[in-house]
Amino acid sequence: MKEILRKSRKGFSLKHAFLVSIVGIALSSFVITNTPNGFSEIGIKADTLPKVKIPEGVDPNSDDWRGIDLEPKPPVLPLSVAEEQRQFLLPPGYKIEPVLTEPAIQQPGAIAFDGNGRMYVLELRSYMLDADSKNELEPTSRISRWEDKNNDGVYETGTTFIDNLIFPRFVLPYGKDCILTMESDADNVYKYTDTNGDGKADKKELFTTKYGRSGNVEHQQAFMYYGMDNWLYSTVNAFRVRATPNGVIREKTGFNRAQWGVTHDDDGKLWFQGGASGLPSHFQFPIHYGNFEVPNEFAKGFDVPWGAAVKIADMQGGMDEIRQPDGSLNRVTGSAGNDVYRGDRLPSNLRGQYFYGEPVARIVRQINPVVTEGLTTLHNVFQDQKSEFLRSTDPLFRPVDMATAPDGTMYIVDMYHGIIQEGQWTQKGTYLRTKIEQYQLDKVVGLGRIWRITHEGKERDKTQPKMLNESAAALVKHLEHPNGWRRDAAQQLLVLKKDLSVVPTLKTMAASSKNELARIHAIWTLEGLGALKTDLAKILLKDVNPRIRIQALRAAETLYKAGAKELEADYVAAMKDANTDVVVQAMLSAKVLKISNLEEGVKSAMFNNKAAGVKLIGEQIITPPKPRNNGPFGGVELSKEQKESVDRGMVIYSELCSQCHGNNGMGAPGGNGKLMAPALAGSQRVQAHPEYAIKVVLHGMEGNIEGKNYAGGLMAPMKGHDDQWVADVVSYIRNGLSNDASIISAKQVEKIRAKTANQSVLYKYDQLIKSTPKEIQVSDGLKITASHTSSTRIGGNVSPQSAFTYEGWSTGKKQEKGMWYQVELPKAMNISELQFNSAAIRRFGPRNGTTPPPPPQVTQTFPRKYTVEASVDGNTWENAAQGLTGNEGDNTVPLSTPKVKYLRIKLEEGLEQETENIPWTMKQVKIFGLQ
């Protein structure tokens, strides 16, 4: 490894030979010479330069193409690590050095560190291996783990922790020798553990489901991130999840509109990084308080990048996006990776500064957040100098992630890649494709470098962490460390250990430590252990330090949700605090907790405090802004009727069900270590087929559930209430208690009530589960065929069976009468329900110099009119449901078939009147039945 990082002074080195071989260009095209400084250089023979072709149908004199240099050019060649190092431009006193490079790693997309300081690398080895993103979804990516065992600053020892992954979305260390990750076009997050200490995961467990989305790899969820509040967040997804003793629960949040990057500051506020916008996407307030429209978040000129001259002008937006004559980017167009620097081995004026990468511009930006009257404005620190924190003249420098490191410095992840836009934006005929071919950027693949930023006079911290092997008592001491990474790691490990012996120490630290940051982490560690009690919260809510009062308001939300309604007076009082930031926080907490007389309290706060932030939040709590078009990052909203049903169900649950199941659905304590009733939040039973929950509410249940006994003993029947009442409460339980399942209608309840009219006694769990339809999985032996099948995107492969996954299936052509999708069941069974999702296709055009990008073109791909047919033999078909109309998002078709072996969805009508080629698409097909 060290040999790779050293400069080559021996003419044409093995390193150069490796680089030439991976770019795939014949050596006969090169002239190799030695320069006076001892480095070898690679030149190109003039007669081998490729001719640049203008795409067919393009007028070279049009506004979009006028002035473009289309002369043949030498290909952009990768530099050695040492040579690239010399192309960086940094402020005075700063240095950059490699810590891990190819060939040990390839195409790194993100990094994360475990409690022992070992670095996990997300290697996206299938990303843009050619301009058409061919084989992008092949299982060739991996997550590797690296150590610096001899403590010389270079990660020389590594293992492949998980191999053969399909474009993994993130890597999150989660305790000892364990990580969380998921693959593209998937819906499940898995926990991988190395149980025998060989550096390779050998145990795979389901962590949570309903987490993903399909589509372009740049538009899927990414960066699962452990927040200071002990919740897990990610880009794209408008929810957060959290592991509990009774399963993984979730809560809805605002839309973060991010793509590749999540981080947090010393106060635990999350910062999300946009993608195509080139800008941070959400940073004003913690995301779980929802979305607020804040004007002028960015200082004037913030969207203008100041990269070094890269000459090649390979920007997606064309000439409008290029600063001449240096060929650099003139307006941010893409961003990836972010970090609020919280270390202790770089100058103190960097602490709390926000850094993010702009890989199209080949820069890392340093951003100064300025808070005035409760609102944040972002300033580019180097804007006046027309510069950036880190620039490079090497066109292959692609900063895609950054992180405060265990050694107190900051690491930069450089994919070092030819193409940094996904295949959807590099199609033939585009300006970008022309530039890619002109400089042969598609040939530069399989590389990657990770760099350390240091500063003269400040040596990196050489004390290697060993937290995975430490006791809980030892971990508590790390909460006082000046490096934020160490505090975060210690907190996470303490929460995952669940060792309550340290609670007294944590309480003392939270209440009276002289270290302000240690107090903050102690508060949240107590919250994560379930050991933050109302008495301590009340003390902290009156602390002399406003920063602590803010943390107490946030942490006490957990207590309030669990039933500590006596804290309501404290939230009301905090809205009258003398400190503006405390008032802002109190209003946000009051909003999310839905405290009584919220509007009255907000108006009082606005009357007493004239700060701009108080006014903005207050007005938008009272009159919420209309939701923006969320582009590829939004979800399908509930209808007005569905929202009203869930709201009614919440009232019923609060008045009747919460006494046993708990205010937050986690189960109320019943004594002797038992719960009064099972947890409903995060329950897979509750979120599976709706018949289970409806039957329980109608007819009740008694006895143990999956081997567990509960102090309450039984669930009383509620069949005396009408169908809408049952639908309301079940809808709230399935959709409002950290769950994410379909809304129930009164008609569904009516059918199940009629079907179970003879149920005269309480259900036993075993009896109930046998009589409830189960989802039939592909692994059970389903066979799927279709009249038409096509890939849903560039670089993707699809089969009819893929509709059962999150990837999805498409006809690939305009909907026509008679098109069908067929499922052969493993054996004849009664089918009770069919579900599928038809998502809209959103197409993004060029930005044409605008900020933000123009809204996408939306194409609805649901089946317009269809029939569901059933068959015993696959030859003779009977209608199981007909005259059906599809809709965007989830589609549910209740069925009641005799025992059948085949099920078929068939279009009754085509789209002959439509001029656009609108296909029929589906994903996540689910069939429920009884054998």
From TrEMBL:
It comes from the Bacteria. Pfam families: Cytochrom_C, DUF7133. SUPFAM superfamilies: ARM repeat, Cytochrome c, Galactose-binding domain-like, Soluble quinoprotein glucose dehydrogenase. InterPro entries: 6-blade_b-propeller_TolB-like (IPR011042), ARM-like (IPR011989), ARM-type_fold (IPR016024), Cyt_c-like_dom (IPR009056), Cyt_c-like_dom_sf (IPR036909), DUF7133 (IPR055557), FA58C (IPR000421), Galactose-bd-like_sf (IPR008979). Keywords: Heme, Iron, Membrane, Metal-binding, Transmembrane, Transmembrane helix. Gene3D superfamilies: Cytochrome c-like domain (1.10.760.10), Galactose-binding domain-like (2.60.120.260), Leucine-rich Repeat Variant (1.25.10.10), TolB, C-terminal domain (2.120.10.30). Residues 644-737 form the Cytochrome c domain. Residues 771-930 form the F5/8 type C domain. The chain crosses the membrane at residues 12-32. One of its GO terms (molecular function) is metal ion binding. PANTHER family: LARGE, MULTIFUNCTIONAL SECRETED PROTEIN, LARGE, MULTIFUNCTIONAL SECRETED PROTEIN-RELATED. This is Sorbosone dehydrogenase.
